[in-house]
From TrEMBL:
One matching Pfam family: Bmp
UniProt main location, coarse: membrane
Organism (species): Halobacillus locisalis
Keywords: Cell membrane, Lipoprotein, Membrane, Signal
UniProt GO cellular component terms: plasma membrane
Annotated compartments: Cell membrane
Protein family: Belongs to the BMP lipoprotein family.
Membrane topology: Lipid-anchor
Domain ABC transporter substrate-binding protein PnrA-like: 30-297
Protein name per the record: BMP family ABC transporter substrate-binding protein
Length: 306
């Protein structure tokens, strides 16, 4: 019996580890078609789950729908028996709803779109509030009296970015012109470069792309053209350190961490629609770099934040 004891102990330890793994809350994440490495929306979501893994002990898997076959990628995640399946972006909405109907006992979370399905919790953001702050800065600091907005696809969430930005510019500087162009894609950095060149030719000295990977091309071209730019979703200063003044933070990472914390605490998702703005720490600004605000400009910005 003595010689068997170590093996029995090992077997018990392995069973305990298996039990602990099975007890962990798990998530399946479907990022956007741009995939990881977008320095934006997908990366922010991934970082939120990484932090939840490190601090809360959750586990997660993910899929990148480069082929835009959302149904297939989501179904793979569903079959892994996660506690929650997370879909990012407006383009994931139809597939999330189809699978939510097919698997009514599976909780889903949908980011940046709204579903009426009872097992889908929808989380959207007040992009107009954060973009308004960006617009204020652009309106206060432009010297050419021309600034630009570059959107990815012309869908409601991106139109909220445009609306807030334009309103902020006009509030700070009614005489400024706001150029608007849509790339009709989130995945083409070359298109972002070209749209930026077009705006520079029209006199823009600040641009704000809300366009995923297309926006990365816009930021890099802004640096080449020696104009200023604003990042989006996460702090994109390191994409173009000589151009990016600040970024409109859309705290997808915070939202998903909160979802996982809720599940880790034994609370269930309720299928409601949550909208997160400045007050809810859903949107905000990254540090302001490269330019200096006067005390009056700082006061205007702080008043808008509050």
């Amino acid at each position: 019996m003595l010689c068997l004891t170590p093996f029995l102990l090992i077997g018990c330890a392995q069973q305990a580890e298996t039990s602990q793994a099975e007890d962990r809350i798990s998530a399946g994440l479907l990022v956007t078609e741009s995939g990881l490495g977008d320095d934006s929306f997908s990366d922010s979501a991934f970082q939120g789950l990484e932090l939840a893994r490190d601090e809360l002990g959750i586990t997660f898997d993910y899929r990148e729908p480069f082929d835009k076959n959302y149904d297939k990628q989501l179904k793979e995640l569903v079959k892994q028996d996660h506690d929650v399946i997370i879909g990012l972006g407006y383009n994931a909405l139809p597939s999330v709803e189809r699978l939510a109907s097919e698997y009514p006992n599976q909780p889903f979370v949908l980011i940046d779109a709204v579903s009426e399905k009872e097992n889908v919790t929808s989380i959207t953001f007040k992009e107009d509030e954060g973009s308004y702050l960006i617009g204020l800065i652009a309106g206060m600091k432009t010297t050419s009296q021309t600034v630009g907005f570059i959107g990815g696809e012309q869908i409601p969430v991106v139109e909220r970015f445009e609306e807030g930005f334009t309103r902020g510019v006009k509030e700070a500087n009614p005489e400024a012109e706001v150029l608007v162009s849509y790339a009709n894609t989130f995945d083409d950095d070359k298109k972002g470069e070209q749209l930026t060149k077009d705006m520079v030719e029209q006199g823009a000295d600040y641009i704000f792309p809300a366009a995923g990977f297309t926006g990365i091309g816009a930021l890099k071209e802004a640096q080449k053209q020696d104009i200023f730019a604003f990042g989006v979703d996460s702090d994109q200063f390191f994409v173009a350190e000589e151009a990016v003044v600040t970024s409109m933070l859309k705290n997808v990472n915070v939202a998903l961490y909160d979802v996982m914390e809720q599940l880790a605490n034994g609370e269930s998702l309720d299928g409601t629609h949550k909208t997160l703005g400045i007050e809810e720490n859903g949107v905000g600004l990254a540090p302001i770099r490269l330019i200096n605000l006067t005390s009056e400009e700082e006061q205007n910005l702080n008043e808008a934040r509050n």
